[in-house]
Specification:
The structure holds two protein chains of two kinds. The longest helix of chain A is centred in the last third of the chain and has 27 residues, at 188-214. In chain A, helix 6 (171-183) packs antiparallel against helix 7. The model of chain A has no long low-confidence stretch (mean pLDDT 94). Chain A folds into two domains: 6-73 and 256-290, ATPase, nucleotide binding domain (Nucleotidyltransferase, domain 5, 2-Layer Sandwich), CATH 3.30.420.40; 76-253, ATPase, nucleotide binding domain (Nucleotidyltransferase, domain 5, 2-Layer Sandwich), CATH 3.30.420.40. By secondary structure, chain A is of the alpha/beta class. Chain A has helices at 6-28, 47-64, 73-85, 121-131, 142-151, 171-183, 188-214, 229-241, 251-254, 258-270; strands at 38-43, 68-72, 91-95, 100-106, 109-115, 163-164, 167-168, 218-222, 245-248. Chain A starts with 5 loop residues before the first helix and ends in a 28-residue tail after the last helix. Chain A has a five-stranded mixed beta sheet with strand order 5-4-3-8-9, sandwiched between helices. In chain A, strands 1-2 form a two-stranded parallel ribbon. By secondary structure, chain B is α+β, with helices and mostly antiparallel strands. Chain B has two domains: 2-78, Phosphorylase Kinase, domain 1 (2-Layer Sandwich), CATH 3.30.200.20; 82-203, Orthogonal Bundle (Transferase(Phosphotransferase), domain 1). Helix content of chain B is 45%, strand content 18%. In chain B, the strands form three sheets. Chain B has a five-stranded antiparallel beta sheet with strand order 1-2-3-5-4, with helices on one face. In chain B, strands 6-8-9 form a three-stranded antiparallel beta sheet. The longest helix of chain B has 24 residues, at 34-57. The radius of gyration of chain B is 20 Å and the shape is globular. Chain B starts with a strand and ends in a 25-residue tail after the last helix. The chains are: A alpha/beta, B alpha+beta. At the A-B interface, helix 1, helix 2, strand 5, helix 4 and strand 6 of A face helix 1 and helix 4 of B.
């Protein structure tokens, strides 16, 4: 196994927090005293990492004597995506290492129409890549390496296709593709190709179901896996068929970023939402649907 | 005449052998590779026609099938006049809603008793006819199985359908469905399925509250090696 170790990541966060914050102020050309609020990611996510961020946020908020705004990480992804693509009321497919969610706004909240019942798509690709002995390089995550190999794939190997209602399951697919990798009968390129084709077809199918169900006029793709060109092409096809506009969030704002937390914090703050320090504990499993999105026009 | 363009299939209302029928045709999906697409469409067409029949044997009303055309991924079945449950529920009195939901729970129980899972239980896939009958449709994602997990997923999907399209009455609706379900399958089997639903909701990112230990302390999953 591999991946991010929560405590090591948290140690890293704590180490670079000071520098990162001062650089952000420099680049923005403002002084800390010019800030109106401190927004921070309150969840969902890994406990130690969230706590490192929350601690820095509490410190700043107390020191500067300005309000704290706890932001839901998934809400922030959707809001920054809407801002940068000018989408108004989209079906969002948010696909990353930890999330595979199809969401749309309804009755005051971002509802989850479909999601993975087990592991996320990004995690599946990463685990497969590690099992295949691939190595991540700077600026080239596993997803990009698998995408590149998939382009050389020619022969489709049939893998479990698991759509349950609007929900997905990737664990069977991952087990099957890793087993095929170990028995060595297929080329790595063919397996990357088959993994992508199968998993992305599943994601596109549930997105289309949500689109048909809600009749929304925009499809928003965000999260790290959203950078994949093949997934983009599939979603563009269904968006077109349902006469919806297809919006891809640029990488800079599709991967986890500070701007999205700040923006979601501003939206909430404008509605008078702040988070008292005593309620600023992190929420590891904070559901998208638990957030009342008061700032969204119904 | 095309009457519904769903995400998965198109429904046509046609005259066939001098009767009104529904032709449910799974049209090719351009985004999928033809190899994947054909396999999915054929499998779902076979599975759906079989399950519509098995469900009927289990006492759960479904449309009658007249013909299956695999080459075309087409099922020709009885046309059922009525409204989708999603239109009926919000317009019903609480008493009628309660009655319908308990009945639905009993039917889901009968499906499970007969080793059938529906696979896509939503308020769009249950029809309430003008003769006050409930008819289950759309078994394309169903399975013949005794897997507890899939039974849990079945009910979990129903719960989610209530939450996403009828958020205001979701809780009462699902509780009534459960009441009917428990009546149909019995206390112990129902208990196992309910535990499974809990597990599914904990396992995914379905938990809004932190898991609590006995002294209400947060459980930290320090050994997880997953990506944030």
């Amino acid at each position: 196994m591999g991946g991010i170790h929560p405590r090591e990541a948290a140690r890293h966060h704590a180490k670079v927090a000071g520098d990162t914050i001062s650089r952000a102020f420099q680049e923005a050309g403002i002084k800390p005293k010019d800030a109106t609020i401190i927004a921070f990611s309150q969840g969902p996510g890994l406990g130690p990492c969230l706590r490192a961020g929350a601690t820095a946020a509490r410190t700043l908020s107390t020191y500067l004597n300005i309000p704290l705004v706890g932001v839901n990480h998934c809400v922030a992804h959707i809001e920054i995506g809407k801002l940068v693509t000018d989408a108004k009321d989209p079906i969002t497919l948010y696909v990353s290492g930890g999330n595979s969610i199809v969401s749309a706004f309804d009755a005051g909240r971002y509802r989850i129409f479909g999601e993975t019942l087990d592991i996320a798509i990004g995690n599946s690709i990463d685990v497969f890549a590690r099992e295949a002995g691939l190595h991540q390089q700077k600026g080239l995550p596993f997803g990009a390496i698998v995408e590149r190999l998939a382009k050389e794939g020619k022969e489709l190997v049939h893998l479990p296709y698991s759509v349950k209602g609007m929900d997905l399951s990737f664990s069977g697919l991952l087990t099957a593709v890793v087993r095929l990798l170990k028995n060595g009968k297929h080329s790595l390129e063919d397996l990357c190709y088959s993994l992508q084709e199968t998993a992305f077809s599943m994601l596109t199918e549930v997105t289309e179901r949500a689109l048909a169900h809600t009749e929304k006029k925009e499809v928003l793709l965000t999260g790290g896996v959203g950078a994949n060109k093949r997934l983009q092409a599939m979603l563009a096809t269904i968006a077109d068929e349902h006469e919806s506009r297809f919006c891809v969030v640029p990488k800079q704002y599709a991967l986890d970023n500070g701007a999205m937390i700040a923006w979601a914090g501003i939206l909430a703050y404008k509605q008078g939402i702040t988070t008292p320090v005593e309620e600023s504990f992190v929420r590891l499993k904070w559901r998208l649907e638990d957030v009342k999105a008061l700032w969204v026009e119904p | 005449m095309l009457i519904k363009k769903g995400a998965e299939a198109c429904l046509f209302l046609e005259d066939w052998q001098s009767r009104k029928v529904i032709m449910k045709r799974r049209l090719p999906k351009k985004y999928r590779l033809p190899e994947i697409d054909e396999k999915i469409r054929t499998n779902r067409t076979i599975r759906e026609s079989q399950l519509l029949h098995y469900a009927k044997e289990a006492g759960v009303p479904t449309p009658t099938i007249f013909m299956v055309d695999l080459a075309d991924s087409n099922i020709i079945m009885e046309f059922i006049e009525g409204e989708q449950l999603k239109q009926v529920l919000p317009a019903s009195t609480p008493e009628k809603r309660r009655h319908l939901n308990r009945r639905i729970g009993e039917f889901i129980g009968s499906l499970h008793n007969n080793e059938i899972v529906h696979g896509d239980l939503t308020t769009s896939n249950i029809i309430f006819t003008s003769r006050n009958k409930l008819i289950f449709i759309d078994f394309g994602l169903g399975e013949k199985t005794t897997d507890l997990e899939l039974r849990g997923v079945d009910l979990h999907l129903m719960k989610r359908a209530f939450q996403s399209t009828h958020s205001r009455i979701a809780e009462e609706c699902f509780n009534d469905v459960l009441e009917g379900y428990i009546k149909a399958v019995g206390d112990n089997p129902a208990k196992n399925v309910l535990e499974k639903i809990d597990e599914i909701e904990r396992r995914g990112r379905y938990v809004s509250e932190r898991r609590k230990t006995k002294n209400d302390k947060e459980v930290l999953n320090n050994n997880s090696f997953i990506h944030a």
